[in-house]
Design goal:
The chain has 543 residues and is mainly alpha-helical. The protein contains 23 helices and 7 strands.
Length: 543
Amino acid sequence: MTKPPSGHSTKKGRPGPPRAPENRLPASDNRTLASGPRVLLLPLLSAGLLLWQGYLNRASPPLLRAFVAAGLVLLGWTVWLWLSRRGSDEPLVIEPAVYKHHWVQALAHTALFVWWGLHVRLVVAYVPLILAQIFFAYGVAALLDWSRRGRHGLGFGPLPIIGSINLFLWFKPEWFHWQFAMILVGYLAKELIRWRKNGRSAHIFNPSSFPLAVFSLALIVTHSTDITFGQAIATTQFYPPHMYWAIFLVTLPAQLLFGVATMTISAVVSLYLFGLVFFAATGTYFFYDSYIPVPTFLGMHLLFTDPSTSPRSEMGRIWFGVIYAAGTAFLYWALGAAGVPTFYDKLLPVPIMNLMVRRIDAAVASGWLKRIDLSRIGASLSVAGRKVAYTMVWTAIFLGMASVQGVGDAHPGQSLHFWMRTCDAGKERACAYTTAMAGIYCDDGSGWACNEWGIRRVAENKPVGHAFDRGCNLGFQPACTNVAQDRARGATLAEAAPTERDLPIVLRGAKQPLVDADPSELHRIGCRQGWSGLCAEARVSGS
């Protein structure tokens, strides 16, 4: 979501005057901030800041090369532009272009980064690299505008683009030059890949979602996911407490101001209903630890909901959300079946959906879809009134889902005990997930989990590796017993309940280990998750 719709609507759905073209001022405000060769100080400043950051990161040769390369790109482009425009009768111009949708979304991104960064050190460490991308984006945006039109609208436009990209994909420092390449691809696609929409030229693809999808596809094809922090991003976005609430609250102003709530509502409700049906049919949760994963929930608010690259009609936007939900669910299954990291599921569908917007608008305006036009509800309201109504509906839906654990930190799938119990009931999918989570918790330092992982690997006739050895080294005595015995066919392996040392890890779900919780709190959490052996201890602690 980077721009509001190209036009307003008045009461009863009558179209109003279109907005001013992108990077152009309304006729009533034709001020010029600067003109002539001096405007080139803007990209020169961006290039200088990048070169300075390269100097500050000279201890890291890959980062030094990336920053210097980005700075030289801007510097070379600026020199070429200056040489090519010498003697031109039309000077280069900077105009003010401060739009509400840019800074509102930038504030939402900033708030999420702050909340995320308070609980994940990796985010804080990446902040200087995000700033470098902002410098680069300002330079590219200006140079591209001047190269094509001779005029550039200066405002907050690059901020939501960089924010959206960095909420979903980071390249590691050794490969950071590709982060700059993503930004360049996004701006070039926005400028060069266009069509006629609502009677004027408009970009087809969102400048953040398009490069995310293109580079995600390239990473999948080349099996290069490990050069990014993509999986770490998807994992650590679960870590902050109340992350669903944070996303809901910081995006509420955009829902209210820009009329994108219908897309979010239809996407969230569709995926939630699918999750309920899947659970009823299989006894397991499709996304394992949630009905809607936090990164997907984030994508439903700040990735695919760009009004300028989504359907114009309200009913079209409702179907747009349904398609996004279906696309993420299908890709989650397909990527997982192919052994590919599933966090790409929310990134790949958006450009394909952008190409469908005109067909979606045409489809909902004719045939049987026209008969179920839900946008007729509230058609008598003004545009502002409908935005308020849709936002109120979304608020009620979110609160309702939160009250029944449809979103939030207390989803039953967060409990390893739930998956163990479901596995014991004969659900193979639950058994596979239990084994996988035991391995993860073993890596985190739980001796009990190592022993459990080893036992399950033996039951599956798979190599145990160093599971029992690691469990023994971590102080879990049954694992030491299992190391000592020959593991002959049919032998009984030693088991025991998790120890106090294991509980912060075993009870964490998709969160960080609960290292700050005292024993009584751990017992209460374990009791709520279904570990009956901890309930008596919780009652004793509470008394």
